[in-house]
Specification:
Helix content: over 70%
Structural class: mainly alpha
Strand content: under 5%
Distance between the termini: 24 Å
Number of helices: 7
Number of domains: 1
Amino acid sequence: MNKLLSAGLAGLAVVTLALPAAAHTGHADGMGFLAGFLHPLGGLDHLLAMVAVGLWAAQTGGRALWMLPVAFVTMLTGGALAGMSGIEVPMVEAGIAASVAVLGLLVLLNKRVPVSAGMALVGVFAVFHGHAHGAEMPATAQPMLFGAGFILSTVLLHGAGIAAMAIGRGVARRSARPTAA
């Protein structure tokens, strides 16, 4: 089940690379928390990358279970502040696309790295995602509410990845048990 889930994530990552980064069309016309909360859900690239962080954290286990998502959210916030401030970050769209591909492959290959290296990697990717969220925040938005919305949404997407991995492992364990004769 774990391999099936991983293969599905990798397949979606490949499909996403062929699409424009859908969450970056200036569509966030809302002004507060709900608009911020919905922004990461509006693009497959954000969904896949943020769920992949949770999947990879759960695969890695130990301290990575919480440290990878915390690193992502921390750097996402920094990237968002840069985007809101008009600070340019080069190759944001390419960085977002790379995050989907790389994180998808890490999950597919069940690749474990030192926690600090994993934190650095997801942190770099988070800057791109955060910058996109911050730069696209509507001028009429309430920055604190909009930011709180996309941060909560991101945390929940990480949690969805962690939960999916836990469910997948539970199903795999149950299916591996010998049946009573």
